[in-house]
Design a protein that fits this description.
two-stranded antiparallel sheet; Cyclophilin; single chain; 10 strands; alpha+beta
Length: 231
């Protein structure tokens, strides 16, 4: 793989609370390419962060939120396809600042396929040893022992924070590189009983600011005129 291909795509979310810059992981190419496609289609422009839970996450991408009325219940606006999960534990996990794909619950989605357009940014909380132990017990129950928190993951959850109970069940496909202060501000927003902010928090515009996978245009050869000999 070339150095160029190893670079990460980058997306800028301009929101009503400030800018959030995201890098997309190459380890999750299906989710990366899908997110890039939707950004290029301007799919996220004017959509809300419609679900906000303090010390947990902020969620956006509901297609029904663009013209939503105050108090309207949101969360069901999606495209008509899903994406195969790309779990990459222990490399990619739910530490604070990562971007992950929302999805339908296990009862109707046992394959844990991601929804096409809704995503969330993790805030979470910092854990101690007792809390980590309880999370591992919960993971053992929900994943039948499939997900085990490594010492490296535990150290991050104890220092940086996150939402470890989601590991191995929702695909993490990117991370915030700038604007965590904006994420913090949004996650503290007052919300109604359905976790929708009372004051709309909107993605004004989403822009693909770096695309290392864009084909490099080859320079066109200059046309040279053929001089005809004078008789």
């Amino acid at each position: 793989m070339s150095c160029l291909a190893q670079e990460r795509a980058e997306v800028l979310l301009e929101t009503t609370e400030g800018n959030i810059r995201i890098e997309l992981y190459n380890e999750t190419p299906l989710h990366r390419d899908n997110f890039m496609k939707l950004v290029k289609m301007q799919m996220y422009d004017s959509l809300l962060f419609h679900r906000v839970i303090k010390n947990f996450m902020i969620q956006g991408g509901d297609l029904n939120s663009k013209h939503a009325q105050p108090g309207q219940r949101l969360g069901s606006g999606e495209l008509d396809y899903t994406i195969e999960p790309e779990f990459r534990l222990p490399q990619l996990f739910h530490r604070r600042g990562v971007v992950a794909a929302a999805r339908e619950p296990d009862e109707v989605n046992p394959e844990m396929r991601s929804g096409a357009c809704q995503f969330y940014i993790v805030w979470g909380q910092v854990f101690n040893d007792m809390m980590i132990g309880k999370v591992q017990e919960r993971l053992d129950a929900t994943t039948h022992g499939r997900v085990q928190l490594t010492p490296e993951m535990i150290e991050v959850y104890k220092t940086v924070g996150g939402t470890p109970h989601l590991d191995g069940q929702y695909t993490v496909f990117g991370e915030v590189t700038e604007g965590m202060d904006v994420v913090d501000k949004i996650q503290q927003t007052a919300t109604d009983g359905f976790n929708r902010p009372y004051t709309d928090v909107r993605i004004i515009k989403a822009t693909l600011t770096k695309d290392p996978f864009k084909p490099v245009e080859k320079p066109q050869p200059k046309k040279t005129g053929v001089k005809r000999k004078r008789k």
